[in-house]
Amino acid sequence: MSQSNSASDSGIGARGLWSSKFAFILAATGSAVGLGNVWKFPYVTGENGGGAFVLVYLLCIFIIGIPIMMAEVFIGRNGRHNPITSFRLVAERNLASSGWRISAIIGMLAAFIILSFYSVIGGWAASYVGHAAMGDFTGGTAESVGEMFGGLLASPAKLLLWHTVFMALVVLVVARGLKGGLERAVTILMPALFILLLMVVGYATTTGHFGEAVSFLFNPDFSALTVNGVLVALGHAFFTLSLGMAIMMAYGSYLSRDVSIGRTAVTVAIMDTVVALLAGLAIFPVVFANGLEAGAGPGLIFQTLPLAFGNMPMGTLFGTLFFVLLLFAAWTSGISLLEPVVEWIEEKTSFARVGSAVIAGGACWLLGIASILSLNVWADVAPLGMFAAFEGKTIFDLLDYFTANIMLPLSGLLTAIFVGWFVAKESLKSDLALQESTFGLWYNLIRFVTPIAVAIVFVYNLLA
To answer: Transmembrane region positions (predicted)?
Structure first.
């Protein structure tokens, strides 16, 4: 057994392990499956021409998503600590500078910031469950549905209430630890999410426009695909798998050595992609049946679909199911965003798991208030407005911009370079336990193709 392998088995007793490979896959898929799948993927697909975009997206999952996910899980499993300490330990065992842990620091900070405004959006989903269940969409017009969403954003009190509810749900799960919290939650929420999604897809088949949606998603029209669309696919493939946020390092630290990192990463990527495509099949038939715009942008979920559900048979029932689905997806991702920070606090301070979760969640909740106020009271406040590139960008906009466009790709890029160039090849071979040809493919991707692809996204985002 190599030095890295024996070291990676230390600390298991205190931390515990996932009870099975399936539990890890559910947790990792729960992290990956979030608003990015149910909310963002359908509308960016609509904006970029459908099937051709989907093909490029799948290619990007292969050349960016899976290689970096494997690298992050490798670091977590070898370190058996919080992401920052795991990164430092792996670097030291490979005689590399401990300064490489900056990648994990950036990722954890990004996860913390993202959760602060992600919780606000998760609160929107929680609020809409109630609206849908009470039939508030029934017979609605574009104006009435728009006023409903606008009224929510304009009310700091309502947003604070739902932000608090969502953050409390996240803290409640993370505070209970690995077996009683994370694992129990994902084994309930993820199957429920799949069942709900299949039910909504089943409903979509009755709209009379299901075939049109299938054609839109799977019939490539490369004339509609622009260079910008390719770069959006690159960026979304990176974001949707929860990469660059130290999440997979945190989850990997609980992973048994007899589980194949490669096979589980591929399984998670496939499940994540299936959910994204099913979300498209659930949403686009409803959109087309109502003569709505497929590329309607972020408003597709909170304005366009409520209008459609409000004017369709059984719309109240399936509208409610859809927003419960959206809430579950946001909840599983919120849990994963908080976990790396809680791990770090628990290991670096005297606070136990519950105290660490409350501290991390409370700090996130406080930062989220800034995002809430930027949607109404501080709507005219642009902290970096003196720079032309950030003119008119609110606090909410800036937090989203810096995490998605700078912090996540930078963390992922550093991780790919570190694992590809500074970790001993034999250590990687031993730990990943892949067939020679498969390992060779992954190794060349993580050394050459993946860093270049991420660097292109990074530079493009900075210049856009």
So the answer is: 21-39, 51-75, 102-126, 159-178, 185-205, 225-252, 264-288, 317-338, 350-378, 398-424, 445-463
Residue 106 lies in a domain: yes
In this prediction, residue 6 carries a pLDDT of 41
Amino acid at 132: A
At 82, which CATH number?
1.20.1740
Distances (CA, A) of 156 to 126, 203, 390, 421: 16, 35, 24, 48
169's torsion region: left (phi>0), alpha (psi -120 to 50) or beta?
alpha
User: Would residue 229 count as lying in a domain?
Assistant: yes
| Cα 45 to Cα 116: distance, rounded to the nearest angstrom | 26
Sign of the torsion angle spanned by Cα atoms 301, 307, 309, 310: positive
Inside any domain, residue 304 = yes
Q: Look up residue 241 and give its DSSP letter.
A: T
> Model confidence over 195-232: pLDDT tens digits?
999 998 998 998 899 999 999 999 888 888 898 889 88
If one counts every other C-beta atom within 10 angstroms of the C-beta of residue 9, the result is 13
Residue 3's pLDDT band (cuts 50, 70, 90): very low
Provide the token pair at 175: 């505070």
Task: From residue 282, give the alpha-carbon distance in Å to each of 57, 123, 289, 309, 351.
Answer: 19, 22, 12, 12, 44
User: What confidence category does residue 12 fall into, taking pLDDT thresholds of 50, 70 and 90?
Assistant: low
- Count of the separate structural domains present in the chain: 1
Q: Inter-axis angle of helices 315-348 and 353-374, to 10 degrees?
A: 120
Return the amino acid letter for 62. F
Residue span of the structural domain in which 364 resides: 21-463
pLDDT attached to residue 312? 82
Taking only the tens place, the pLDDT of each residue in 151-173 is 999 999 999 999 999 999 999 99
Q: Coil, helix or strand for 426? A: helix
C-beta separation of 84 from 108 below 8 A: yes
Residue 101 near residue 84, CB atoms below 8 Å: yes
